[in-house]
Amino acid sequence: MGNRTYTMIKPEAVAAGNSGKIIARIEDGGYKILAMRKVQLSKADAEAFYAVHKERPFYGELTDYMSGGPIVAIALEKDNAVPDFRQFIGATNPQEAEEGTIRKDFGTSLQENAIHASDSDENAEIEIKFFFSVRDLVG
Ligand code: ATP
Ligand code: MG
Question: Quick one: pLDDT at residue 2?
Fold first, then answer.
């Protein structure tokens, strides 16, 4: 284990027509796409996906935002995928993200930060299963 992570291109980046550019960056970064799907989350889907943040003050806004337009859900493979991909996309706040990262280049605010990345191997598996079945994952 330790070689898979889950990502999704968030609604504002999809709406702006940046999905293709972001996917190209991900592939150029050495990540293999195992499965990918464009999907519109319901409010209940977003609440379930972000249940870990239920007690945070931004939970309502976050789940409205994430259910406000289609996202692109992607399962990725690479050695050391979880920590490497978090570094690759940059800090949560695009203004603090390093030069050349996806969030720096495509994020527009702390909330609208273009892309998600799993924060642990355990959560990567949970999040991949939220969107894909085992037979969807093509190595
Ligand atoms: P993600 O889980 O989306 O990869 P992250 O792990 O960097 O991001 P989290 O703390 O898990 O950050 O927050 C989840 C998401 O909630 C952020 O990506 C952002 O869209 C939103 N968010 C985080 N902090 C705030 C905040 N203070 N105000 C509004 N939205 C926030
Ligand atoms: Mg997170």
Answer: 81
